[in-house]
UniProtKB/TrEMBL annotation:
The lineage of its organism: Bacteria, Pseudomonadati, Pseudomonadota, Alphaproteobacteria, Hyphomicrobiales. It comes from the Bacteria. It holds the Pfam family DUF952. This is DUF952 domain-containing protein. Signal peptide: none annotated. It comes from Stappia sediminis.
Amino acid sequence: MAIIYKIVTSTQWAEAQSAGRFDGAPVDQADGFIHFSSADQVRETAAKHFGGQSGLLLVGVEAEKLGDALKWEVSRGGALFPHLYASLDLAKVGWVNDLPLGPGGVHVFPEGL
């Protein structure tokens, strides 16, 4: 069971909860898909795109629950990244955790990730 990860602001997630689905952050909407990261990629994603930012949440989703709308495509450094070409149905979300900032402005990930 492969878990993929989405980093969102608490405001974006509150809007998703009201709507019953996550339609993506502004960058996702501009690109036409929702950007996710694998376990091996999510720390670099946090550092590169969310460095020093507080008020974030880490969303975990079982990749296979997303069906054919999930595509693994070449992105940063030639690596394959998971991209969702649909809204994220919140019923498919496995868990949501805070992604706080630790010492030096580095995000503190859940244990085991």
